[in-house]
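In the laboratory, one determines a bound structure by crystallizing the protein with its ligand and collecting diffraction data. In a computational setting the workflow is compressed into a single prediction: the sequence and the ligand go in, and a structural description comes out. We illustrate the idea with NAP.
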Amino acid sequence: MQTEMKEKTYRNFINNQWIGSASEETIKSLNPANKEEIVGYVQSSTVEDLDHAVQAAHKAKKLWRKLGQAARGQILYKVANILEENLEEIAETMTREMGKTLPEAKGETARGVAILRYYAGEGMRKDGDVIPSSDKDALMFTKRSPLGVVGVITPWNFPVAIPIWKIAPALVYGNTVVFKPATEAAVTAAKVVDCFAKAGLPEGVINFITGSGSVIGQKLIEHPLLNAITFTGSETVGEGVAKSAASRGIKFQLEMGGKNPVIVMKDANLDSAVEAVISGAFRSTGQKCTASSRVIVESEVYEAFKEKLIQETEKITVGPGLEEGIWMGPCASESQFRTVIKYIEQGKEEGATLIYGGEPLTSGEHAKGYYVTPTIFENVTPEMSIAQEEIFGPVIALFKATDLEEAINLANETKYGLSASIFTTNIGSLLEFIDEIEAGLVRINAESAGVELQAPFGGMKASSTGSREQGEAAKEFYTSIKTVFIKG
Ligand code: NAP
Ligand code: MG
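The predicted complex, in structure-token form:
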């Protein structure tokens, strides 16, 4: 069978070698659009394998630091070119492994290339500032230094972009890396690491290890040779990362969930608001931390907005992401599918009104995958689970607000604060929104899920801890400042 021919076993990458785990056991990665298809096998690594990877990164620290920022940047340009050459194949693997549609997977891989080039360019940019000293005979300046070994733990929803936006700045600023990807997307991750491997990095600079989060992920967090950890994923795991890192005084950075609101005011262009809500809520099957999940509409236009929203949602085609004409793929895994269904049931039980979708798709062309319909609830109140908890699925909760103040209060009534949008043509309203909204990404007349690689990315409240990712902001996390004073 064709699907079986594609199966392959992927190994860990340690000290520039692809090696199998001491466990001699593997984990299979399944296609959520067709659970009978195995995308590949990855290593079920042991804590000894993990230790080997961290030791390799530790040993490589000095040489990599001494190579210099410009030379490190040059290597990242090579990685970018290799990723670009393999874009089609990596994007297809991503679609097979976690379900997002092929155009989205290609877009994400192209984003990965652009991020690599951005940080490659950092190789030639400044790594400090000269500061006037009060002593006229002295020279005082700052110099950015690498931290050492950085642990990188990533989720499955952006299996190319998230690892790259962590690994590329870590490397260019002179750190070595131990990368543990999400098991659900570990084959895609292995292919990304292969691009680094082919670019000819010195031994031990990037190390890749797959396996259970609670075993090797946990061990990575606790490893005494780790100098920093960057994590994107759930709050529960994030809390463990924070505790462990704080107890040892190492730097940590956490990107966690969102419950991102979109406010639609009566003066908004309703067509573009509907388009942005659909894209923000349902692209990637709602599995983005910046996905729109709460839509707060001013009363006067509530019915008109709702009607248009339903009309446009009806046009969404759900199916395998590799098929042309499919707009929304499956949930990324069985557990994700079950979570979404659980929240839909809870929404109904808690008294919200289901006005669109809310069904698992289990027959015909959908029988082999983890499909759900796009789903819309109304009459949602702030204390309901679907108003508070991150679903990570294609589910919208609609709210009505009488004015901007009520809308912003509703928008802020969550522990999260990643992204937030408003649709309005009123300058006063948008200025008020910019000031009052509790979110790290503030979007005006634009969907909540847009991100640009050259700008800081991260949230307020429970969404993020530590300095921002991406753009220049990444430098804050991946370097430490030395203030140098030289007396002539
Ligand atoms: P998760 O369970 O926290 O997993 C994230 C990563 O942590 C995976 O690599 C996982 O490995 C690993 N892990 C699991 N348990 C661990 C432990 N005890 N110690 C160390 N590492 C551990 O999250 P997920 O379910 O994969 O991802 C979905 C969540 O990520 C959502 O809640 C979403 O909001 C969040 N997310 C946030 C952002 C953001 O930028 N803010 C972006 C994307 C996703 P295994 O895969 O092997 O379990
Ligand atoms: Mg999978």
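The chain has two domains: 2-256+464-487, 260-452. Keep in mind that any predicted model is a hypothesis to be tested, not a measurement.
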